[in-house]
């Protein structure tokens, strides 16, 4: 009996090792498959559903502060003409929506502003008040800073080309009057006029023109983190600057976090 048992154990030993190797191989494949699925879901999510974005300037204060970190809902606006829009819960861009979009010039950084004018609107600013199609627009979100005010921002569109020294993009300065009719700016199809809530400290559509529908990435959904910061902290947009900013934020995570802004919705 002892001899038979010993022979049986010897016979079973190679099978056990083979099973172990097969199990290890299977585990590696499972981990690789799990990682690949997670990566694909993450890529799908950031491409079609949500994306992180941080506020680098004062232009949307007090609604959004420098250092607010947002989740942007990319699964919200229709208007691109894709066949699947009719089957998904998309909607049109509305006046008053806060949007994240690609800036029309330079290296197309992402900007965040509020939609003020829609395609076909006739827009005019008189004494800091916005008029859409002849009617004053209620803007409870707007703040004015006397120290940052300029006459060009108070009244728009201008009546002459004197404004070329008012900080306009040259591309916009040469075409602005093509859209002016009887003192109002007429917004063309598939374009939007956007402005910052911090109206006197916002470089927006008054200074560089319209936002193309295809440039709109989505609408901020929630502030998932907020850290006390200055615009200068985000001035360096190189990869090294981004790493330095992340390291500095993590180093001062407890003391600089604005806990009262965490998980606030954006409106």
Give descriptors for this structure.
Umud Fragment, subunit A, eight-stranded antiparallel beta sheet, disordered N terminus, single chain, alpha+beta, 267 residues, 29% helix, globular, five-stranded antiparallel beta sheet
Brief overview:
By secondary structure, the protein is of the alpha+beta class.
Report what the structure shows.
This protein is globular. By secondary structure, the chain is of the alpha+beta class. The strands form 2 sheets. Strands 1, 2, 3, 4, 10, 11, 12 and 13 form an 8-stranded antiparallel β-sheet that branches. The protein has a 5-stranded antiparallel β-sheet with strand order 7-6-5-9-8, with no helix packed on it. It has 6 helices and 13 strands. The chain folds into 2 domains: 14-49; 55-265, Umud Fragment, subunit A. The chain has helices at residues 2-49, 151-154, 170-173, 205-208, 239-251, 253-256; strands at 50-54, 68-73, 98-102, 110-117, 122-126, 129-132, 135-136, 180-181, 184-186, 191-195, 211-212, 216-226, 264-265.
Helix and strand layout, with pairings?
Elements (H helix, E strand, L loop, with lengths): L1 H48 E5 L13 E6 L24 E5 L7 E8 L4 E5 L2 E4 L2 E2 L14 H4 L15 H4 L6 E2 L2 E3 L4 E5 L9 H4 L2 E2 L3 E11 L12 H13 L1 H4 L7 E2 L2
Antiparallel strand pairs: 1-2, 2-12, 3-4, 3-12, 4-10, 5-6, 5-9, 6-7, 8-9, 10-11, 12-13
